[in-house]
Amino acid sequence: MITPSPQAIIFLHIPKTAGTTLYHLIERQYKPGEYYIINRPHEELLYLQSLPPEHKTGIRLLAGHISFGVHEILPQPATYFTFLRQPHDLVISYFYYLRSAVSHPYSHLAKSMSLPEFIENRLDLNMSNMQTRMLAGRPSYGDYYECTPDDLETAKENLRQSFTVVGLTEQFDETLLLLQRAFGWQNLYYARMNVTRKKPSADHLPSDVMQAISQANQLDEALYQFAATLFASQVAQQGPDFSKQVLAFQRRNQWLYPLRYGLWQSRRQRWLWQHNASYFVRELYVRARNRFSGNAGS
């Protein structure tokens, strides 16, 4: 029998904000079946919606590249957390990730274009105000949608009202300790994963490239500043010893890094296989259901 969760936790994973690293920490906190990671939102949200309520109530943590509002699918109360990242660094990391991700549908285009050209192309929604779009509850896939100042205000309000922890990628360790205190997580030592290595830093890009990024992400710039204020307020609430606790954690994590990195390398293939297999089963279910529905209506 599945034990209902009194409150589900939703990790709204904005791409290239260190979320893959966090997934491996999540696996240590929950038993299989208690957490649900969405790899392909369009297909898997349909599957999640189709589950009976008694199965949904067993979900303690839901995570993925999902926009705000997914809590409406769950019958139990839910709270969110997320990481935001400085928009310039986020866009640069994402663009160069596309160039190296040969299986991504936009990889070939990213290789054939400059960064400003790829932004101007408007095929990939994630190149323009991605964080505002997701946190305002707008789809992060499909037809191009231009975020508005109203979306920015909606995103701010969602962060203020529905997120127990608003984290920053640049303050990853501090955010981990906030998550520990908020949700009772343990064993948070880690090795960074899925890092886009072959990318220039913002300091080494031409001014016209930086200008193109800024023009396409003005709302995200404002949202990031707002999130940084919320983050600072959360840290201030932890008391005067919090910075010392963060430093102690960082020292222990650095000492354990070689061991953690070796364990990650050995587990990486098993982790990928498990999530790919899980997606395959869900996709078969969705296709079978759609086919059955189509036959029933003909």
Provide structural commentary.
Strands 2-3-1-4-5 form a five-stranded parallel beta sheet. The protein has helices at residues 19-29, 41-50, 53-56, 87-100, 107-112, 115-121, 130-135, 149-162, 172-183, 207-216, 218-236, 242-297; strands spanning 8-12, 35-38, 61-64, 78-84, 163-168. The chain is α/β, with parallel strands linked by helices. α2 (41-50) crosses α12 and α8 packs parallel to α11 (218-236). The chain is 57% helix and 9% strand. It contains twelve helices and five strands. The protein is globular and about 45 Å long. The protein has one domain. The model has no long low-confidence stretch (mean pLDDT 86).
Instruction: Provide the succession of SSEs.
Output: EHEHHEEHHHHHEHHHH
The total tally of domains equals: 1
**What proportion strand?**
5-15%
Distance from first to last alpha carbon: 38 Å
Task: Tell me which oligomeric state these chains represent.
Answer: single chain
Q: Estimate percent helicity.
A: 55-70%
Principal-axes shape call: globular
**Tally of DSSP β-strands:** 5
Major sheet: arrangement of strands? 2-3-1-4-5
Biggest pleated-sheet summary:
5 strands, parallel
Overall residue-averaged pLDDT value: 86
Output the radius of gyration.
Answer: 20 Å
